[in-house]
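hey m, so remember when u said the tokens were messed up on ur end? i reran from scratch. heres the input so u can diff it against urs
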Amino acid sequence: MIPVAIIGAGPAGIAAAIHLQRCSIGFMLLEKNRIGGLLREANLVENFPGITPGVPGRTLTARWQRQLGAAGIQLEKARVLCLAHHDGHFMIQTEKQTIAAAIVILACGTVPLPAGPPLDQLQPHTQLFNSILPLVNSRQKIITVIGGGDAACDYALNLARKNKVHILNRSGKLRALPLLLDRCRQHPDIIIHENSMLTHATVNAGTNEIILKTLDPLRKEKNEIACHRILTAIGREPALQFLHPELRAAIAELQSQKKVFLAGDAGNGRFRQASLAAADGLRAAMEIQAREIK
């Protein structure tokens, strides 16, 4: 049995691993993809302490990768299929093995909400995307970003370097940080559509263009947008789908016993910031350290 299992190698998981390593507390760091989590999608990280000027999220995660290597911390590439709690310890089922752990840090981040109609009829991964990573190398395309929060504006600014971008927001006011919103409004290759409720999405068989039809419910005006790709930024939810139902029911009690820690985006709702996530991971590791001292 390992003392601590860290599920997820984003800012929270990395911070927890580095501190546990310094404390000589045994752990395993599991990650299904690459390190960095959602931060890898960030166009520019400007509010992480010590990072000036702002850097792309992928640059920051590359630095963390080097930091893990320098500390001798190895990453276990594994997708967690089920996490259960039996007889006072945790059983982690991955595609390759079953791991027993005394304590678990859930630093597994979030997953995007499904697009729903009318976008659900489009082809995933070729026409419809919920991550910017497959699109970052796009050139001379017209891309529509669905959403009005920080992520939507950040995606648009990233993609508009080499493409034309539409931001489609169903309400009259975007929720994004004013700084990001101002940058989008001033960018010559970004068009913001407010009060635009998406009503239809079809593909032109001759050109393969995606035709989006929208309705302004206030003015009763209809509009049409032709694009090549659609990127949704309509919200996210904790990536905790692998929790066994019995563990899900008991998780609050296990948290109070300091056996389970929700760190980073998995437990912070809409407050998804790298600095908050890193602090959560460090706090979890320090709580575990305090238990070891007792």
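this time it looks ok to me. The mean pLDDT is 94. if urs says something different then somethings off w ur setup not the seq
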